[in-house]
Structure formats: C-alpha cells, structure tokens
# Entry
Amino acid sequence: MPMKRTNFMIAAALLAAAGGLAACSPDQGKSTAAAGGNDASSCTNTITKQNLPVVTMWGWYPNMRLVVDNFNKRHDDVQVCWTNVGQGNDEYQKFQTAISAGTGAPDVIMVEMDRIPTFQIQNALVDIKKYGFDAVKADYGAGAWKDVSVGGAVYGVPVDGGPLAMIYRKDVFDKYRITPPKTWAEYEQAARKVKDAGGPHFGDLGANVPALMMALQIQKGATPFTYDPARPKAIGVRLDDQASKDVLDYWGGLARQGLVGTQNQFTPEYISGVINGKYATYISAAWAPGYLTGAGVGKGKDTGRFAVAPLPQWDPARPVQVNWGGSAFAVTGQAKDPALAAKVAYGLYADDASLADGWTNQIIFPLNLKVLKDPEFVAAKVAFFGGRQVNKEVYVPAADGYRGVTYSPFGQYYYDAMTKQLSALIKGSVTGAQAADRLQQDVAAYAEEQGFTVQ
Amino acid sequence: MTFLTEESAPRAQVTAPTARGRARPREHLMGWLFVGPFALVFLALLIAPLGYALYLSLFRRQLIGGTGFVLFDNYAKAFTDPSFRSGVWFVVRFSLVAIPLQIAVALAIALILDAVTSLFARFSRLMIFLPYAIPTVIGAVMWGFLYSRSFGPLTDVFGWFGGTAPDLLGGDLIFYGLTNIVTWQWAGYYMIILYAALQGIDPALYEAGRIDGAGRWQVALRIKIPLITPALLLILVFSLIGTLQFFNEPQILRHLAAGTIGPDFTPNMYAYQQAFALANFNYGSAISFALGGIVFVCVYAFLFLTRKRRSFLR
# Structure
C-alpha cells in the first residue's frame, strides 16, 4: 500500500489549500468591513482630521460628497464617514438586513420620510428630540416636522421635500391653445380638447408611482393611515373612503378614455416620451425638474419648452397642497453615540454652502426655512423653466401650504399592494372604487397579520 | 507509477498478516481526508444555511407582538396565498411553453450543425452559443431596450408595414417577451450539450443505416435522436429546475415594466420581496422551501416518468 507517499501528497495538498485560504482571508475581512455600516475604515470620503470621533452615515444625495466635506471642515469635534450603499430601496434593503441581523447599520442614515414609521416600529431609529431639537425647531415648517415624526417623537431631520405641481409642455399648450387648468375638471376638459385635436396624451397614470397616487388622494381629503404610538397595537387604515375612490375613478376614467398614458414612470420609455412631447403635462414634485435635467431633458433646443403651474385643485376655493417624496437624516438604533449622531443628523445638510449647492443645481428642493425665506431662492430664475421665477410662483406657496401626512409602518407593503391595484385599474379589470375596496382589504389583512388591530 | 508498486509490494508482504486489521481504519481516515475539504464547504455553505432557513420558516415574526413558533403555519399560508399560487402557476405555464421551445430550437440547430461540416458551421456554432456567455442581467436589459417601443427597432419594423408594434413589456405579451429572452439565452448552451452528444455517436451506425436505405431524415430521427435521449433528458431536468426558479430576467425587467411585473411575479421573486423588502425572513424562507418542494416533486415525477431512459442520472 502506497501509504507514505500518498500521505505526503495529501499533506502537501492540504497545506496548499490552507495557504490558499490564508491568502484569501485578509481580502474577505476587508469586504465584510466594507459591507458593515458601523466600520469607519471604509468611507467614500476622505477624513483629513485624525483622532476625532467618527460617525458613520449612509446617503445618496448626488452632492453628498460636498455636503460631507463641508460638515467635516466646519467641525473639530466629530467627523462623518459616508458610504453610498444605493438609492432608495437598495439602501432600505441593506438597512433592513442590518436591523434583522442586529449589526451592520450606520449611525446616521438618509431615509425618505414615508419610510420612517416602517423603521421606527422596529425600534431601528432613535427619537432625537432630546438631542438638540429645540435649537433647530424654527428651521423647518410644521408639515416637514410632521412628516418625520411618529406621534410626539421626532425620528429625522428634514432635508428636502417634494411639493406637487403640474409641469407642462409650453409648446403643446400653445399649439392647442389651452391655458393651465386650475381644477381637475378643467384638467379633464383640456385633455379632451387636446385629444380631439389629435394631440398627445395629456398626462400619465403610472402603476409604479403609488406614492403619487396617495398624495393625490390626500389632496381630495383622504386620510389613509392614522397611528398613535401611545396605542401601538391600533392602526387606522382607510383606503376605501369616498375621496380615495373618487381620485382612482378619476384617473381610471382618464386612462380608459385614452386621455392619459399608462406608462410606468422613471423608465427610459417614459422619459423619452416626456422629451418627445408625448405627454402634455407631468404631475410631479419639485425635484422632478432636477431629475429631468439629469436625464438630459430641457437642454439645447428643448430649453424653455417646459413650464410649471400650481397643482390643479378639486375645490379652488379651498386649495390643498400635497407632497411626494423628500428625505431626512435619521439616527439608527445601532448608533454607538446617539447624541453625537444626532448632532451630525441635525447639522449635515443644514449649512448655507451645502444648501445653496443643492438648490442652485436643482438637486434638492430644500425644506430649511433659511432657504425657503431667502429672497435669492424665492426670486431665482430657473433655467429649466425658461428663466421663470417658479419658486415664487409655484413651489414656495405649495411648500408653505403643506400640512404633513401620517405614513404607515408597513409602507412597502402598502405601495406594492397599490401598484397591483393600479395595474388592474390600467388594464380595466377593476373600477377605481373596486380598486380602493380591494386595496383596503389587502392592506387591512396584512396589518392584522402583523399583529395590529385595524380600526 | 511502477516504482510505487515496487515499493509497496514488499511492505504488503511484510505486513500481510495484520494488513487487514490495520489498514482499514487508516483507509477510512484517508477517505475522510479526501472528502473533508468538500464536506466542510458543503456543510458550511449549503447544509447549514438550508437548515437555518428551515428553522426560520417555522417561526412567525410580527411587527406587533414579536416572534413566535408556529410550526408549519407559514407553509399552510403559502399554499393558500394567491400571490404564491399565481407565481407557481406562472412558472409552471412558463415551463410548459419555454422548455419545449428551447429544446426544440437547440435540437434543430445541433442536428443541422452535426450534419453540415464547414467553416460557416463552426462560426455559427460559436455565435449561437454566444448569448449564454452574456451575463443574464445584461441580456435582460438589452432585450428590455429592444422591446421598447420608443428605442427598439420594433416600432420601425412594424411601421414599414403600417402596423403598430406590440408591447412585449405589457401585461398581455410579457409572457412571450420572457420566453424569447430565455430561449435566446439558453438554446445555445443546450445546443452545445446536444452537439457534444451527437459527436459521441459512432459514425459506423450512420453507415449501417444508409446501407439499409435510410435517408438523412431517417438517420436524424431514428438514429441520432434516440441515441442522444440521455442528453436530452439531462437538459430537460436542468431547464425544469432553472425555470421553476425563474428570477433574474423578470427581476431586471421590473425596472422597465414595473406595473406589468409585480413583486410576486414568480415564487422566487416573492420570497425575495418578503425577505428583503418586507423584512419577513420567516415567510420568505417558507416560500423558498415550499418552492424547493415543488421543484423536487416536479423533477422526481419527471424522472419517474422517464425512468427507463435515464441512464445518465443513475
């Protein structure tokens, strides 16, 4: 039996394998550190001031690097270590995994305001009211604070918002001789006029923008969710009230008559449609111009083709302003030093230089009242809208009139369920009222299953 | 290797009386050493996560009320969950259409390439195989744009004949859009497997067939296809498992057709959504295991039905 030699061969093979493993391990260690948010060794930015306490942060604002550098330059007591782990859902999924794992989350995290209750209910966010809230309370409006609060507790520092308005194609409106509709009834009439004259779709009902539909329902008086953390087991779910049904029926009707398109938004297909004038209006938030500019719209020969008017109303005598999107900085439950992390959250995107960079480049629509009341911001002539003073005319009044919303602690499920019903509505297999009923059933059942008592 | 036997021969003689008793445990040890590295990786990276997922699937975690042991409740819920059932129904329907199509295309091309020997055939073989070398993600994004009615060529092509292009990302046609992508991606790969099997057939059989008066068609149908049946069954099993676990293509196309492809479009996507978007790892695990069970049953049934021909899997 050739034991000796084979033994030697096996020993050699094992040794080689062990060597291979050993060679791998430093790399592996590094990549796990990069994936974990609580490790300061993997910042995207460069921290120049050494030996200071470091707060880790996730965020995806396009000018995040500048914002972080501004903060670090101004502070000698704390430095921010920033990582961009993805935008929106990509980040939330990583955060959610870190929550479930109990480790790996950063100290401070950028979240859209409608997601705050989802994480708050898992105790993944820290109430920052006791960490210097009073000093900045006057910097933001009541609506902005409501959006980052659950009950009386504050879980985020507002940065940007998305007051809704009606962006429209000036060339299309001129061609078919229509003026911006002030009510939704006028909106439908104008849509019919354009269609009868052989014009393009007047707007778009996208199944993948449930948050927009929620805002439009709220405009008519819907209150989708009521929640009081003092009674954490009870939640009000009212997705099938008359206002919600009316708005779904309205848009379903527009789609059925072919007055609006039914393309998913944020897709190349939709953006190219916007560029090519396939949609006369684009009901969207204040961040939309920046998004469109980034997608290459409104440049060159397109300059000045777009204009913006206030969001059409149901009752022009009692206008209601609504909001879509917007983000905040929150302190996570895994923060090593919550007080220090709260200091970062409060100060990060609140200095003049960062805010100015944000709004002049149309990266954010700021919620900081220092900017909203700044004459330079209010009177700014926006190139995308042909040099019109759209902040003064449309967006600042819309932001001022916004009262805030109570979002649900299972926002993702609600949005997915809404998308399902919107798809059915677009297909024509349900009416708006039926879609609202089904949505109510679906979401209420989910809430019950999650242990809530639905009221 | 001769010197090994020379060396070992005398030792074997010397130790002959006790060899049996002593060599056995050492042989066992050697066996374990050989198996060890594999077993370690296998246990750590496959069995342990599977066990953990199974463990997770027996619990239920609520936003209010915390975690509780529920035994098989999650499975009971999965099999009555319309999202899961419609997802399973979709992948089953998809398997029934896409798999025969892929294999028919692969078989046809393999037979043609086997019959024709020219430089062009070799070039074609490479080109047909190429889609398999393109990462799924890139392939899906590419097809997404080709299907686009704004960017893709379809609008132009149909425009020449005065028609309007079909919306292959729309609710009615997405099934066929996906069928096409999957066929494009996998037919080349299956073709290579079948082609290799065809190359392994003894040419003497063709000669014998021709002497008996068989034409080209008869050679293909009566000799070639029966002889590559084991390879055909192999790729059938591959594609059945792969298609029931359908995930990549619809997940990528969601970004282009979010309203058409919901988060519960296929069972795997539904498990992913439950675990990573809704933080419901327990139910996500249960869905994964339920899907695993369905795949197992389907494959087992398939193998049972074809048991006489499955020499390759034994």
About this structure: Chain A has two domains: 40-161+326-378, 162-324+382-454. Residues 1-37 of chain A have pLDDT under 50 and may be disordered. Chain A is about 45% helix and 15% strand. Residues 3-35 of chain A form the longest helix (33 residues).
